[in-house]
């Protein structure tokens, strides 16, 4: 996928790009979510952040590696949300070199899906003054996001779910979470980064083998 989709997060953290402050409004439960949809606060090109509490317990030590998942709403009704996000794949598909993560479009059914919208853990509507405001700007942002459907160029620090939404709505790929990672989450990110490099090397090797098979099979 072309490198134009991302930019250097280290440079962003130095202020080279103008990343304006975001405001967040907590969504307390399903009824509150529906109220926000009815009022028009949540709709096309809305940015949602969902907290994912995670902890590793070893004897009497607890290591927190909680993180936030970000996604873009493309359509909102009183029954479901249609979203686009960078979704991690199941371990079995990763082992079979089917991709680590992929930008996909999901339908979040309010009646059945409690994983993406875990209100107890924390669901937030994120807004910023430099986000699309008019219907035309929002439509353009959604079309921009859809052009990246199927992308498998995930990077923990430089092209994650937060980067994707930031690029779609602001025009620059930046993850505040990645640039401020600490403790176990930072180490997990570093290890994952090298695992991704190994995975992509194996994927390239697999592609070369397949090309050789096709070549000699003709």
From TrEMBL:
Pfam families attached here? LRAT
Q: Which superkingdom is the protein from?
A: Eukaryota
InterPro entries membership: LRAT_dom
Limits of the LRAT domain: 121-171
Instruction: State the name under which the record lists this protein.
Output: LRAT domain-containing protein
